[in-house]
Design a protein that fits this description.
This protein has a 7-stranded mixed β-sheet with strand order 6-5-4-7-10-15-16. Strands 11-8-9-14 form a 4-stranded mixed β-sheet, covered by helices on one side. Helix 1 runs antiparallel to helix 2, helix 2 packs parallel to helix 4 and helix 5 packs across helix 6. It has 2 domains: 140 residues, Four Helix Bundle (Hemerythrin (Met), subunit A), CATH 1.20.120; 273 residues, Translation initiation factor eif-2b, domain 2 (Rossmann fold, 3-Layer(aba) Sandwich), CATH 3.40.50. The chain is built from 11 helices and 18 strands. It has 438 residues and is α/β, with parallel strands linked by helices. 31% of the residues lie in helices and 14% in strands. Bound molecules: 5-S-methyl-1-O-phosphono-5-thio-D-ribulose. 5-S-methyl-1-O-phosphono-5-thio-D-ribulose binds next to helix 2 and strand 9. The site of 5-S-methyl-1-O-phosphono-5-thio-D-ribulose (MRU) has 18 residues, from helix 2 and strand 9.
Length: 438
C-alpha cells in the first residue's frame, strides 16, 4: 500500500491522488498554505486523510511561527486554524483535527513555545497512527457482516488512500479478504473525479481482491438482478440522528438498496459523528468547480458555456442505513418490525436492524446503567433472506451510556440525545457488552 501521507524531516509528503493510478507522484508541502492547497485541490482527499493532513499542516505551520511569547504564538496559531478549517467544509475531520491541535496549545500554556511546537508535531503523527489502528478495528467489527461469497458494492474511495491507512469501508472489505472470505467487489466509477475506478479499484487489485467497475448509473440494474449482496460506504460526517454525508451518489444507492432489500452499511470512526448537528440537512455540502463535471483531465467535454452543478456530497437519511460500523461497535437501526418506532432527530443510536437480519436476544447492559426503560423483549429467531442458515448472525442488544459516548466525540456542547440503544452484532467476538469501553 502506498502511504497516504508522511512527515519527513522538515516537510510533509503526500501521494498525489489526482494522478493515481497511472502515475505515482509526490506532493511535498513545506508550509501550511501548501497543505491547505493540497486539500482544496484534492491531491489528498477522503475524510480521515484530510483530518490527518490538517493536523500535520498545522503542526508544520506552527514550526514557522517566530514568536517566543505564548500569547503571540497562540494568536498566530489560531489564525492558521481558521485558514485550515475553510479548506473543505463537509468532512468533520478537519474540524476534529483543528480542535485537537488547539487543545494542545491551550493545555501547554505554561510551557515554552519550542516545546509546544514539538508536541504538535508528535500529536499529528499520533493521529495518523491512531487512525490506522481505528480502521483495523472497524474492519474487525465489520467482518461478521460480510458473508462468504458476497458481492459487495462500494462507492468512491474509503480505502487506505482516504485514511491514514487500511481504510474504513475498504478496511471491512480488506478484513474479509484477509479472513479468507471469497468476495467480489463492484466499484462505482464515481463521477466526476472517478475515485472509485482510479483509487478503489487500484487498491483492491493490489490486494488481489476480485474487482469489477461499473458506471454509477448501472448500480440499480445490478441490484435488481440480484447481483449485489450488500453495499458498504464510508462517511464524511454523521449527524446526531444518523443521517450521513458521503460522496454524491451515496443517497441514490441507499434508496436502491432499500428497494431491493439489500443491507446498506456505513463504516466510519466515531470521530465522524457530529453531535452538534441534529440532522443531515444541517451538514454543509461542498460545491465544487462545475468544470469538474464538464471536463475531464483538462479536456472540455460539454458545449462551451454549459452550466453544471457539482455538489461533492449528499445526505443519506438514517432510515436508509442498516448499520454504522465503528471501531467500538456496530450501531443498528431500531427494528420497527418489533413494534418500535424510529426515534426523533437527535437520537442517533436507535438505528434499525437491517431488513430482517437481526435476531435480538434482549440482553441487558452490563455496565451498571439502568436499562429498565429500554429493556428489549426477547424476540423470536427468524431467518434472514440474505443469510438464511448463518446462525453466527445473532445479535445482542446493549446500551452505551450517553456520557461515555460523548467523551469520544469532539462536540463541546452536544444537543440532548436522550437514551440510546445499541444493537451490537459481532458474533465472531462473542456477545460481550462493550459499553464500558466507550
Ligand atoms: O471528495 P472526496 O474524494 O474527499 O470524498 C471522499 C468520500 O466521500 C469518502 O467516501 C469519505 O470521505 C470517507 S473516506 C474513509
Amino acid at each position: 500500500m502506498i502511504p497516504t501521507i508522511t512527515w519527513e524531516g522538515n516537510h510533509i509528503r503526500l501521494v498525489d491522488q489526482r494522478r493515481l493510478p497511472l502515475e505515482t507522484r509526490w506532493v511535498v508541502c513545506r508550509g501550511l498554505n501548501e497543505v491547505i492547497d493540497a486539500i482544496k485541490d484534492m491531491a489528498i482527499r477522503g475524510a480521515p486523510a484530510i483530518g490527518v493532513a490538517a493536523a500535520m499542516g498545522l503542526a508544520l505551520g506552527a514550526q514557522s511561527i517566530e514568536a517566543q511569547e505564548y500569547e503571540t504564538f497562540r494568536d498566530k496559531f489560531l489564525q492558521m486554524t481558521r485558514d485550515m478549517e475553510s479548506a473543505r467544509p463537509t468532512a468533520v475531520n478537519i474540524r476534529w483535527a483543528v480542535e485537537r491541535m488547539k487543545e494542545i496549545v491551550d493545555e501547554m500554556r505554561d510551557r515554552g513555545v519550542d516545546e509546544i511546537k514539538e508536541a504538535l508535531k508528535r500529536a499529528s503523527q499520533d493521529i495518523l497512527e491512531r487512525d490506522i489502528e481505528i480502521n483495523r478495528r472497524i474492519g474487525e467489527h465489520g467482518l461478521p457482516l460480510i458473508p462468504d461469497r458476497a458481492t459487495i458494492l462500494t462507492h468512491c474511495n474509503a480505502g487506505s488512500l482516504a485514511t491514514g491507512g487500511y481504510g474504513t469501508a475498504l478496511g471491512v472489505i480488506r478484513a474479509a479478504h484477509e479472513a479468507g472470505k471469497d468476495i467480489h467487489v463492484v466499484v462505482d466509477e464515481t463521477r466526476p473525479l472517478l475515485q472509485g475506478m482510479r483509487l478503489t479499484a487500484f487498491e483492491l487489485m493490489e490486494e488481489g481482491i476480485p474487482t469489477t467497475v461499473i458506471v454509477d448509473s448501472a448500480a440499480g440494474y445490478l441490484m435488481r438482478r440480484g447481483k449485489v449482496d450488500l453495499v458498504i460506504i464510508g462517511a464524511d460526517r454523521i449527524a446526531a440522528n444518523g443521517d450521513t454525508a458521503n460522496k454524491v451518489g451515496s443517497y441514490q444507492l441507499a434508496v436502491l438498496a432499500k428497494e431491493n432489500r439489500i443491507p446498506f452499511y456505513v463504516a466510519a470512526p466515531l470521530s465522524t459523528f457530529d453531535l452538534t448537528l441534529q440532522e443531515g440537512d444541517q451538514i454543509p455540502i461542498e460545491e465544487r468547480d462545475p468544470k469538474e463535471v464538464t471536463s475531464f483531465a483538462g479536456q472540455q467535454l460539454g458545449p462551451e458555456g454549459l452550466a453544471a452543478f457539482n455538489p461533492a456530497f449528499d445526505i443519506t437519511p438514517a432510515a436508509y442505513i442498516s448499520a454504522v460500523i465503528t471501531e467500538k461497535a456496530t450501531f443498528w437501526k431500531e427494528h420497527t418490525a418489533y413494534g418500535r418506532k424510529l426515534r426523533p432527530a437527535g437520537q442517533v443510536f436507535s438505528l434499525e436492524a437491517p431488513h430482517d437480519c437481526q435476531v435480538d436476544k434482549g440482553s441487558n447492559d452490563k455496565a451498571g446503567n439502568s436499562t429498565s426503560d429500554l429493556k428489549i423483549p426477547a424476540k423470536p429467531e427468524h431467518q434472514c433472506p440474505h443469510h438464511p442458515a448463518d446462525k453466527s448472525r445473532q445479535v445482542d442488544s446493549t446500551r452505551i451510556p450517553v456520557g461515555a459516548l460523548r467523551k469520544q466525540l469532539i462536540s463541546r456542547e452536544p444537543p440532548p440525545l436522550g437514551d440510546k440503544v445499541v444493537h451490537k452484532h459481532n458474533p465472531e467476538q462473542g456477545t460481550e457488552d462493550e459499553a464500558d469501553d466507550l
